[in-house]
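Worked Example 4.2. Consider the chain below.
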Amino acid sequence: MRGLMMETPLLVSSLVEHAARVFPDTEIVTRTVEGPIHRCTWKDVRSRSRRLARALQASGVREADTVATLGWNTQRHLELYYGVPGLGAVLHTVNPRLHSTQLIYVLNHAADRILFVDLTFVPLVEAVWEQLDTVRTLVILTDRKHMPETTVPGAVCYEEWIAGHDDDYAWPELDENAAAGICYTSGTTGNPKGVVFSNRSTVLHAMGSSLPDAFPVSADGVVLPVVPMFHVMAWGVPYAAALSGYKLVMPGPRLDGEGLTELMNLEGVTHYFGVPTVHLGLLAHWETSGASVPTLKLATTGGAAPARSMLRAFLSRGVDVRHGWGMTETSPVATVSRLTARHEGLDEDGKIDVLVKQGRPLYGVELRIVDEGGRPLTWDGRTSGELQIRGPWVCSAYLGGEPGSALDGEGWFPTGDVATIDPEGRMKITDRKKDLIKSGGEWISSIDLEDMAMRHPEIARAAVIGVPHEKWGERPVLIAVPTPGGDPSKQSVLEFLEGLVARWWLPDDVIFVDALPLGGTGKVQKTELRARYGGGIGV
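Applying the procedure from the previous section yields the following structure tokens:
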């Protein structure tokens, strides 16, 4: 017997329709690229995304065509998030921090028809325009007053482009498995790989990431997503916002601590999403200026391992912290680490020990760790193995590949991470397979050593690399960024670590730098560190 329930497809367009019907007057606030604060509502976003869909159709865009963006977190970019997949086309959010050769590659590989860009990124497009094979139209996300001169022929002003179309548009009822978005992963060697999200996976991800043990924000919430809309769909926040109907505060291009604090206080922000580099800038501003955000309840961090000093700074100010983990291939949110009632009796260090873990999987996501032969390992919190994942918002293949080609023979996606899982399902990544250090035949976890180093009161960020060693094969070298005003010495760091790690884990060298090299998504570029400091010891 089959169930007798309606088979309503899960579509991105249904999210904005829901928000406009149920939360029509809830605000979307943007600090625009042009400068002024812009205010609109969910009802306005629906209207303008419908007009956008009409404009796209009039320009010849059809179902399954790809449309690219190079944009900040703004209300115009939000309209593209709904208008493009709503009509059945595919939204390709491009990271402007890519090298020009990779920028050209992803735009050509995705076969994008139209490219939408914010004013900031017009020079990027001008530099590569002649090498783009499929893009035929450049639309600049601004109004006539701010429309720049450009060398790109036939560039179009966004506001004028949609002004000629009304919002009397009915979203097509698509197959829920139709592609809705494409993001290219930066976690690979060689050319980036395209991950294709479906309407179904996008809606389910929005539901899953809004669960109470994930990032729960009700319609009363005021959310500032600093995580860029060009980075894995801003962790799905623009879609979860419509699902729950909360107020969005879009920071545009200004992401400095002073600017974010000003915007948070202006709009009464309660929830804030960002990567550690942004958090550290915000906290540094609070520390030096004495500023605060009294309304802030929750800070969510992801994209890179959080520094213990960062977690401590938020907790000491009464701000709850949640640490999310995922990959482009997982849409991205797969696990979340949070404090629960059972952790109330822990001291601050004990709470931070919980928060630095990557946490428990959301409903729908399954995890396992396996040995080198692919055999599942026990969840005891000590045994480590390769982390594998599966679920309804986990990719099965990359753009251009055969369905299932990214999975192992049992249907699991190999993440390339090495992890432990404790009996309560809390996962902790101990390293990337490629970053493990083998010294004298024994493994050293670079992530665990980094975590221990960042417990030092004068170290803000740390990275550990393995360098060749004549006797031991490899030895760890610690590259550290001191805290503002800190002046740690190599000896003080080694003495500090002696009580935390085995002696043979102690770095052979400690190098202090002003900043670590970061990639387009905020992750430390260990390949660059190896090129700079990986010459070897005694070889």
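The chain has a mean pLDDT of 94. DSSP finds 15 helices and 25 strands in the chain. Compare this with Example 4.1 before moving on.
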